[in-house]
Amino acid sequence: MRFLKGHGTENDFVILPDADATLDLSPVDVAALCDRRAGIGADGVLRVVPTKLCPEAAGLAGEAEWFMDYRNADGGIPEMCGNGVRVFARYLVDAGLAAPGEFAVATRGGVKRVRLGATGDVTVDMGMPRVLGDSRALVDGRECRGVNVNMGNPHLACAVEEPVAGFDLGREPGFDRGVYPEGVNVEIFNMVGDHRVSMRVHERGSGETRSCGTGAVATAVAAAHAAGETTGTWEVRILGGTVTVTLEEDTSYLSGPAVLVASGEWPAVL
Ligand SMILES: N[C@@H](CCC[C@H](N)C(=O)O)C(=O)O
């Protein structure tokens, strides 16, 4: 089975082209592909399938030719992946399946419009973040208060006083299961300048990752909220680089690098 490997600010993905919609991707297969010692290694899998051949997305076929079937490293099926959409778009253009410029990608979180050139950064319209109040997490034994932001998938973005570099995110943070029955992605961030934050994240289903696109937007929303703002542009520094988030009255944008780095054959037939 042919695969590619790509990443967006080091949030890395195994890409599986599936033009005939024949791959039967089980959670065990996904976990094996994402295993960093026994497999290819990644934070998640992006299956690239024509929207019209995918029953769960067929209704979106008129708007978007391709459906991003995203899976977390543990095989779970989340609603959205912001960096995944950017890498998915880069793959479509590099493979000649879409022309550079602007086009739509279908996701479980709805249709997302992307903008990219033949090379360089990829921007995705992430839609309107939904702010659902406050909640708390226990991160590395420290209680953190944050903003509950839904980006299609659930986030808790917590401003912390101590430098984010000093936290151990190796274990899943504790959180309120009444607020997040399906689990949550937890971000911690420091303000490090004017409209500039430093963020780390523990992702549901993938553990600590070096970047998270939906998490970067959620963090910008929480930082803006703390500053009494609702619009503006935020630089979000993560372990894997920097992304830019623009908050507008009725939507949000995520921009940053997205690259393909390898391709090969996975011996198993799925
Ligand atoms: N890394 C992603 C988010 C992937 C999904 C997340 N782990 C979840 O379970 O909701 C991003 O770039 O947004």
TrEMBL record:
Gene Ontology CC terms: cytosol
UniProt cross-references to PROSITE patterns, sorted A to Z: DAP_EPIMERASE (PS01326)
Enzyme Commission number: 5.1.1.7
Entry's Gene Ontology BP terms: lysine biosynthetic process via diaminopimelate
Binding site for substrate: 11, 72, 82-83, 153, 185, 203-204, 213-214
Catalyses which reaction(s): (2S,6S)-2,6-diaminopimelate = meso-2,6-diaminopimelate
Root EC class: isomerase
Catalytic residues of the enzyme: 81, 212
Site feature Could be important to modulate the pK values of the two catalytic cysteine residues, where: 155, 203
Pfam families recorded: DAP_epimerase
InterPro entries in the record: DAP_epimerase_AS (IPR018510), DAP_epimerase_DapF (IPR001653)
Intracellular or extracellular location(s): Cytoplasm
SUPFAM superfamilies: Diaminopimelate epimerase-like
GO molecular function terms noted in the UniProt entry: diaminopimelate epimerase activity
Record note on quaternary structure: Homodimer.
Recorded family membership: Belongs to the diaminopimelate epimerase family.
PANTHER family: DIAMINOPIMELATE EPIMERASE (PTHR31689:SF0), DIAMINOPIMELATE EPIMERASE, CHLOROPLASTIC (PTHR31689)
Name of this chain's protein: Diaminopimelate epimerase
